[in-house]
Design brief:
929 residues; alpha+beta; 10-stranded mixed β-sheet; 6-stranded mixed β-barrel; disordered C terminus
């Protein structure tokens, strides 16, 4: 039996090889899913932890415990530290991650203190920090005579106006009253590396603590009548060891820690919560993006398997006539499909691994790179998916055999001449599906703002929103098949009397087989339309993201300088402050060195109050610029229609340059306060937050000299998340003033340095810690969501080209083989070869060219209808630049070129087959049948 099956496969080796290719691709795409899911999940985790560190300015994987212990239970510092170390050990027994660092701090409430030079009524806490000598540098030191020596931070020195060698007189309770203890400031220290994971609490966070040695701390405990000692313990873990496999387990353990110990806390669970939400979105996105491609491969496999089954109908009837049961025939073909599925499974696993790695390496549509894709590795779930896909293929290929295994040859002959209209055409399934797709599109378009907010809140996306375009393409393909049949009937009825014999035979064939040939048309339309949509969707997503990033940055690169804030407490209780400006000359020298074409200061403040008449606006966005330098440096990225502003933005800079006290304002600010060009307004600024959260220190009157919709670096819409993680949209109001005027009226405050790089130069030629548009674009391209989308659209487009070309060529070659007898009869009746070719060309026009053109039209229509909607997933924020649809001519030419080659090759092959066809052989074939 097995040898018989092998011989059957060999007899139709080319068809079976094509079937094997389809099965292998189907399994490969199936196998991609778990590898892509796990790889993208690990990438998301790494990105979330990194973003948390950047945004919150803290180590992203930290466990902590803060509280107090009774001095009676823990009489010295070491007993407290041992207890804290016990907690750390218990945590890491369950959350099995390597320790990066640990910071333990114990303190005693010092109380009121007098300083030798600074005056009375300061408050200090006595603390012991075991890692202080290892992780901090001594900036200044001086010995003096006092009871105890202590160390303070630079922040404490600046805030209280202390100096090295100064004495602090601390009034501490000793059980019988207050006792004065003197400390001499022997050292002033600062962090060796403030970015070291050890500094969970920085020295600035411990501004009222005077640090002492462990011996001094233990001695101080004897003086105090306090019942409790305060502590804080921070354990930093290696977040790189948290992955998709253990994230859920560790999250459960940390929830148990919190339930069992109310003093326990961590910053990991919030990150994992966001990860679980995004992981669910990734899963849905992957299935939604894979499903259309899987359907396309199923159509391809169905087409090939149907051709094989059609050629083997006689073999099945012979087996049945010789006594084989339907079950025996079914088992025979089950073995045949099992062999193909097994081979496809082996090839599919290897091919799926390669495809997934290739898709993960993309940073744009059809753009493969050599970037690090180490998170995308082989996972054991790929084997399970491969087996499941293989079983699906075996059933899909074998089940139709049962229907073909009829008892009598007469039944098969009656079936052959049957002209039943397909069920979908009878029930108008195409119209129903098209109406459903239109309804879903209408409904989703009405909910755009709600959908955008749900994406920003990291809630799961609705996969139907992505699949609706595939539903539209499929329904439109069925409708085109219906219309093509009607066109064939109409042309035949109108011109039937004028047809030549060859043309009459051609239309007769089209009418007889239009229901059977409809499958090819649906396949071609879905392939072409899907390829066009995938290309346009990927291009639109990438192009809009890049343009928005370039607009938001406003120039090539930005460097945020470190300004030192000096705060002085005056004797009358008031506070004086000033910023020390760094040397700006080092940036101006970049122009002389040919690295930058333009460099400028841009002072930015997002805590500005603006008033005009009876109206006022809070938290407006101030930009102070040098108009000439800013014009040479900044860039305003326009949208596709170049309609952000009514005129070129240089015109507005010229108006500002004419008015030293003038300002440029945004159109939404003008509307909110009822302002127009020439009106006056007043804007106020607050003291630095380190000094006071809510104190205005200066105001300035200004004249409105221009009103703009867009300006370099100005994002009109912002989004804020409340405690319940609900996102709300807010508008930002812009006011642009002259830099010299702002510094004169408000004093020196921090600014950023904007740079326009010379041609061929990159940020690596300047500093490594710059913010540049290109860096942000690269980071965005490497985000998991964008990477998955680019990768899957690229794979879908390439598979569409391959499957369409092979399927189209194979279908027509096999059709020609099946009609060999018919062509032989036509030739025997006197039909010339030229007429046979004309007949086939006419059939190709209706069965191939029209579907290809319809596919192109449907693909463009799907692009126009669905791209902006689906872009919400990737671009949920409102922006000064709207979402524009991008269609790259190169993508359309690639698709058209491949299809043209496929059609040309098909026509050449058909011509050669016709020339090699022997009339006598065809006629003998007819006699034998």
């Amino acid at each position: 039996m097995f040898g018989f099956v092998i011989n059957k496969l060999k007899n139709r080796k080319w068809l079976n090889l094509c079937l094997l290719m389809g099965v292998a691709l189907f399994i490969a795409l199936f196998v991609c899913h778990p590898m892509f899911e796990k790889g993208a999940g690990n990438q998301i985790l790494d990105r979330l932890f990194t973003d948390h560190a950047t945004q919150q300015n803290e180590f992203p994987a930290r466990m902590s415990r803060e509280g107090t212990y009774a001095v009676a239970d823990y009489p010295d510092s070491q007993s407290v530290l041992d207890k804290l170390s016990g907690y750390e050990k218990k945590w890491t027994e369950y959350v099995d991650i390597n320790k990066v660092s640990s910071q333990q701090l114990i303190t005693l409430p010092g109380g009121r203190a007098d300083t030798e030079f600074g005056g009375p009524n300061n408050y200090f806490t006595i603390g012991y920090l075991p890692g202080l000598s290892e992780y901090a540098d001594v900036v200044k030191s001086q010995t003096g005579t006092a009871t105890f020596e202590c160390c303070i931070s630079e922040k404490t020195m600046d805030h209280y106006g202390l100096v090295a060698g100064e004495k602090i007189y601390l009034h501490v309770p000793d059980g019988s009253g207050k006792k004065e203890i003197s400390f001499v400031i022997s050292q002033i220290c600062s962090e060796k590396d403030i970015n070291d994971p050890y500094w969970a609490k920085t020295l600035s966070d411990m501004g009222d603590v005077i640090f002492v040695s462990q011996d001094v701390f233990d001695e101080m405990m004897q003086y105090y009548s306090e019942d409790n000692i305060s502590y804080s313990d921070f354990l930093m873990l290696d977040y790189r060891q948290i992955n998709t496999e253990n994230a859920s387990l560790y999250d459960g353990y940390m929830e148990q820690f919190k339930d069992a110990d109310k003093l326990y806390n961590d910053n990991i669970r919030d990150t994992l919560e966001r990860f679980f939400t995004q992981q669910k979105t990734i899963k849905l996105m992957l299935w939604a993006l894979e499903l259309p491609c899987l359907v396309l491969l199923i159509l391809f496999i169905r087409m090939i398997s149907a051709q094989i089954l059609s050629l083997e109908e006689n073999d099945i009837l012979v087996l049945r006539s010789r006594g084989a049961t339907k079950l025996q025939v079914f088992i025979l073909y089950l073995q045949q499909s099992g062999i193909i599925a097994f081979a496809g499974c082996v090839l599919g696993i290897v091919l799926g691994y390669i495809m997934c790695r290739a898709a993960a390496s993309t940073d744009g549509f059809l753009r493969f790179t050599a970037k690090d894709i180490g998170t995308y590795r082989f996972v054991w779930q790929m084997l399970v998916y491969a087996v499941a896909a293989a079983v699906i293929m075996v059933l899909f290929i074998t089940v139709p055999v049962w229907k073909k295994s009829k008892d009598a040859i007469s039944e098969r002959r009656r079936e052959r001449i049957s002209k039943k209209k397909p069920l979908w055409e009878k029930c108008f399934i195409d119209v129903i599906l098209l109406a459903l797709s239109a309804y879903l599109l209408y409904n989703y378009n009405k909910q755009k703002s709600t959908l955008a907010i749900s994406v920003l809140e990291n809630r799961s996306i609705d996969p139907v929103m992505i699949l609706d375009n595939s539903l539209f393409i499929f329904a439109a393909a069925l409708l085109c098949v219906r219309l093509t049949g009607l066109i064939i009937l109409l042309v035949d009825r109108l011109f039937k009397k004028h047809f030549s014999p060859a043309m009459y035979a051609s239309f007769l064939q089209l009418k007889r087989t239009r229901y059977n040939q409809g499958f090819l048309a649906v396949f071609l339309i879905m392939t072409v339309a899907g390829g066009i949509f995938d290309a346009n969707m990927a291009r639109t997503m990438n192009s809009n993201m890049e343009k928005r990033i370039v607009y938001n940055v406003g120039c090539d690169a930005i460097y945020n300088e470190d300004f030192r804030l000096r705060i002085q407490k005056n004797k009358d209780g008031s506070v004086s402050w000033m910023y020390d400006e760094p040397d700006f000359g080092k940036y101006e020298s970049l122009k002389n060195e040919g690295i930058c074409d333009g460099v400028t200061r841009v002072l930015e403040d997002e805590r500005v109050d603006i008033s005009a008449g009876s109206g006022s606006i809070s938290d407006a966005y101030l930009m102070a610029i040098n108009t000439k330098e800013f014009g040479e440096t900044a860039k305003l990225q326009s949208d596709q229609n170049d309609d952000i502003n009514d005129a070129h933005w240089f015109n507005y800079l010229n108006e500002l340059a004419k008015e030293p006290d003038g300002v440029i304002i945004s159109s939404n600010l003008a509307k909110a306060l009822g302002l127009k060009v020439g009106d006056s307004l007043n804007y106020s600024r607050y003291v630095p937050e380190a000094v006071d959260d809510d104190q205005i220190y200066a105001s300035e009157n200004a004249k409105v000299c221009a009103i703009v919709k867009g300006f370099p670096g100005y994002e009109r819409y912002t989004y804020e998340t409340d405690a319940d993680k609900n996102v709300t949209e807010q508008e930002k109001y812009l006011i642009v003033a002259n830099y010299a005027t702002v510094v004169e009226k408000f004093g020196m405050t921090p600014y950023s340095v904007w740079m326009n790089l010379s041609k061929g130069k990159t940020v690596d030629d300047i500093y490594k810690n710059l913010t540049s548009a290109q860096q942000l674009i690269d980071e965005n391209k490497n985000s998991a969501t964008v990477q998955i989308t680019n990768g899957m659209f690229t794979l879908s487009f390439i598979l569409s080209l391959i499957v369409c070309s092979v399927g189209f060529l194979l279908y027509w070659v096999m059709t020609l083989k099946q009609r060999e007898l018919q062509f032989g009869i036509y030739r025997a009746m006197g039909m010339r070869m030229r007429e046979v070719k004309a007949m086939l060309l006419n059939e190709q026009i209706f069965l191939s060219f029209l579907p290809l053109l319809a596919g192109a039209g449907i693909g463009i229509a799907a692009t126009a209808m669905f791209v902006r909607l689906i872009s919400i997933i990737y671009l949920p924020q409102k922006h000064n630049i709207g979402v524009n649809v991008y269609i790259y001519q190169s993508d359309m030419l690639e698709l058209a070129g491949v299809l043209f080659v496929a059609v040309a090759v098909c026509y050449v092959v058909i011509s050669r087959l016709l020339k090699s066809m022997k009339i006598a052989q065809a006629l003998r074939l007819g006699e034998d049948s």
